[in-house]
Amino acid sequence: MKLVHADMFGADAGSGSPLLVLIPDEDEERHGKSLSPDDLSYWATAWLRKSGADEVVLVTDVEARERSCRPMVFGARGVTPFITHSMAGVATALVSTGALEAGSVTLHGPDSSPQVWTDGSRIEARLVGPVIDDVASDIHEFRRDARAWRVGIGRGFLVVDVDDHPLQCPAPDVDSMERAGLTDLTYLRWAAGESKLQARVFAPGFGMPEDAGCLPVAGALSVSAFMRAPRLERVEITQVSGRGSCSHLTAVGTVRDGHADVVLSGRVHAEKAVEVPGPPAQIFADVDPTDHTTT
What we know:
2 domains; 5 helices; Diaminopimelate Epimerase, Chain A, domain 1; alpha+beta; 19% helix; 17-stranded mixed beta sheet
């Protein structure tokens, strides 16, 4: 099995959001599909804890002719249905290892979105869909002074306006967020009309107390800027985190009649692939075998 460490959207290798991509050969893929969901999740999240990555992706059904694959994304809480962000790392890993040639990569099956183009380093991801743009009144139980709304492309994210640099703002209390029913929260610093914005993303409801970089959130922030500054067609998005990572993405797009069409571009630094044992042979010694992470 090939293992690829992908550094997502950092200006330099090691400065972005870490992702681990696992690409089995045919025999390993066949064996992996015979495992129960719980066993497969346990195996994948063992990699997650050992590597320190934000997510681990197991990639199967790679079709060179159709330029498609079937990724399975694992976070701290097991399998996650949210795949847009990780798809950029998967596409880069497949191209950098020679499994696919440079170009567009899609999901295997009738639903071909999200579609990512990559040359093995630079990526472009197109996000298209209805605009979500609602005032978030429910956050006032959590932060009474917040200027907040839910915005996104097809799915809304909670965005809070801040005047200071996002790193100077205190991290929200995870327990308080849970009590308020909030899965995610993004601090946004942006002066209307400017082409650069800064953000800090927290997503404890998705198993990430702090998210070092997220494509869908970047899409949401770009939509927010395009709606509030109609002449703006391009924005530079910097997502920072308290652990020192910094992701950079450029968004180009339009918002018309409640519909968004945005292309996000950035760089993914993929390390040279290494061979590792496939499931279930590789179970780390420091992982308690009774501590199963369920889906």
